[in-house]
């Protein structure tokens, strides 16, 4: 566990009203670098993902993997007493993050326009399916909906096969990444001006943002990109090939590597072959080259090809199944699989922090919280509530 006094976000207080994946992923990133993240959950219900498996002694490993290092406070916003507590919290925090459908907070009288009157320095981050504006703003969305609408499913999979979802929930995760990025940008702006602002992140926008060369290809050619399997659309050879016993990925990114590659595979005559002499030519004749290379790679085992290609400096690698990540020397050396504590003194393994800072490195700052675990603590220390007031709020159903 890292020392929060040395972390870049130490002292930043975040009111986390998010649930499931996109929002919790963003606030987890803030917690990993020292922010105090206060997760607001409905009494007795909590974040929906507390009910998602797999479970360890009844506690959701899914929830734990996204909510480490946070504090849980239960609060019912639909009654006046709960709303009053919420406004007291807003006065004390730097950032509020929510991923409700647009209009939800406004219906409660707690939208950004109202909250900035309470705290002009507040950074209000709203992550939603389609954003706060536009004709689809109030439409519901889930990860696969935006994967489909955003175009990435149309270029994923094998040619001529039915569409497939990307294996990870990148609709949610990219929204979480961009939300954290927006919050950090707004915090930096506030340091210079003293003013907060609204951070509006749409899952659909994020999917479009990561399409990179697919957008460029259509804009230039007028032809919609299609699935290519493992093949890269404009770099060749750059794909997975079947060896005698397993798949190997080869990425020959320039003509210098191409010459080295041809020597390794024992086909130096291909270096100056007019069909393959440049990357553009290799891509133009990708099927012809693919037929040649498929037969070559079948002649040796995966281990043999890896040894020879590595020795020549050719970028290559395996297609690892998830279980192989747990004992991978590079992944372990970078601490990319870490232990997270959960209630009842249990632990789970979760992804680590991919951003490595030399002076103020982030890391897991604490366990995943039980529902409402920190309610009394936060109300006493942050808001100065007495035990009597807290008891009264509980009696009224506000906590």
TrEMBL record:
One Pfam entry name: CoA_transf_3
Keyword Nucleotide-binding assigned: no
Keywords: Transferase
Superkingdom to which the source organism belongs: Bacteria
GO molecular function: CoA-transferase activity
SUPFAM superfamilies: CoA-transferase family III (CaiB/BaiF) (SSF89796)
Name of the featured protein: CoA transferase
Organism: Thermanaerosceptrum fracticalcis
Phylogenetic lineage: Bacteria, Bacillati, Bacillota, Clostridia, Eubacteriales
């Amino acid at each position: 566990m890292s020392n929060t006094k040395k972390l870049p976000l130490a002292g930043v207080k975040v009111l986390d009203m998010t649930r499931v994946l996109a929002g919790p992923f963003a606030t987890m990133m803030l917690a990993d670098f020292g922010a105090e993240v206060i997760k607001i959950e409905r009494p007795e219900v909590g974040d929906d993902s507390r009910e998602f498996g797999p479970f360890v002694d009844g506690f959701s490993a899914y929830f734990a993997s996204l909510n480490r290092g946070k504090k849980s406070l239960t609060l019912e916003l639909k009654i006046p007493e709960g709303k009053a507590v919420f406004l007291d919290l807003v006065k004390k925090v730097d950032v509020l993050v929510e991923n409700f459908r647009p209009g939800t907070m406004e219906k409660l009288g707690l939208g950004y326009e109202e909250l900035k009157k309470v705290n002009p320095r507040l950074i209000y981050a709203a992550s939603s399916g389609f954003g706060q504006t536009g004709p689809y703003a109030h439409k519901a969305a889930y990860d696969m909906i935006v994967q489909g609408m955003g175009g990435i499913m149309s270029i994923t999979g094998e040619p001529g096969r039915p569409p497939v979802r990307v294996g990870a929930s990148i609709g949610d995760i990219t929204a979480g990444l961009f939300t954290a990025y927006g919050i950090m940008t707004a915090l930096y702006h506030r340091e210079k001006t003293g003013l907060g602002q609204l951070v509006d992140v749409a899952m659909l926008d994020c999917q479009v943002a990561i399409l990179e060369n697919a957008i460029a290809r259509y804009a230039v050619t007028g032809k919609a990109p299609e699935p290519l399997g493992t093949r890269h659309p404009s770099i060749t050879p750059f794909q997975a090939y079947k060896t005698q016993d397993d798949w190997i990925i080869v990425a020959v990114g320039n003509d210098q590597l191409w010459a080295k590659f041809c020597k390794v595979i024992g086909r130096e005559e291909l270096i100056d072959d007019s069909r393959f002499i440049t990357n553009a030519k290799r891509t133009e004749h990708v099927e012809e080259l693919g037929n040649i290379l498929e037969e070559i790679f079948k002649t040796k085992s995966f281990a043999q090809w890896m040894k020879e290609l590595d020795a020549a400096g050719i970028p290559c690698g395996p297609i690892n199944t998830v279980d192989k990540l747990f004992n991978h020397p590079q992944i372990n050396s970078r601490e990319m699989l870490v232990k997270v504590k959960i209630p009842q003194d249990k632990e789970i393994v979760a992804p680590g922090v991919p951003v490595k800072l030399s002076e103020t490195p982030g890391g897991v700052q604490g366990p995943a919280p039980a529902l409402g675990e920190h309610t009394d603590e936060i109300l006493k220390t942050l808001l100065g509530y007495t035990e009597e007031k807290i008891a009264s709020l509980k009696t009224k159903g506000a906590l």
